[in-house]
Write a structure and sequence with these properties.
α4 packs across α5. Among the domains are: about 60 residues, no CATH class; about 60 residues, no CATH class. It is an all-alpha fold and about 190 residues long. Helix content is about 70%, strand content about 0%. The longest helix is centred in the middle third of the chain and has 43 residues.
Amino acid sequence: MPDTDDQSGADTTLAALIDALSTGGQVDALSVLRTQVAKGLPESPQMAVLLRLMERQQQMEAQRQTEAEEAQSEVGPEQELDEAAGKERTFQELQEKVDRVYAELESLRERNDAIAIALGACYLCFGENPLCQHCGGQGSPGSNAPDPDTFRKYVLPAYRRAKQIESPPPERPRASVAQGRKSAASSGLR
């Protein structure tokens, strides 16, 4: 059975360690543990393992910090120039893409405007938006007089094609069966 003095010493150490860890880094928990061990706390295997683990963690953190500082100090003027050139290249690529998107948008707007003129519709909403600043939702196709030239260019070909699809193909005149027999008889095929 453990000695009560040993148990109360371990509890005090544990309480001090928990307090140090819960301060969010304001107190070094490893220093607290070392101080408690130095005060003559009977050495237990668990405390020794805990102390070694915390020392190893502190060493690894110091090594990571040193490596990060060295990596940062190794950045020379050439690397800074390469980074600047890479950023400039990325910016140029983005600018070219934006320019292409705007050119396509402008082309689509022109085509949309032409179709709206051909249909006699509002070029912004085709009469589908009651809050439209241009037509107030009143600009549906046919609400204005269509432009004849653009109508012939865009709408008439589509209308003709739609009409062909809707109407059945013209029937070929079929000869009657009786007429077919007469022709066969007169040609001597029977």
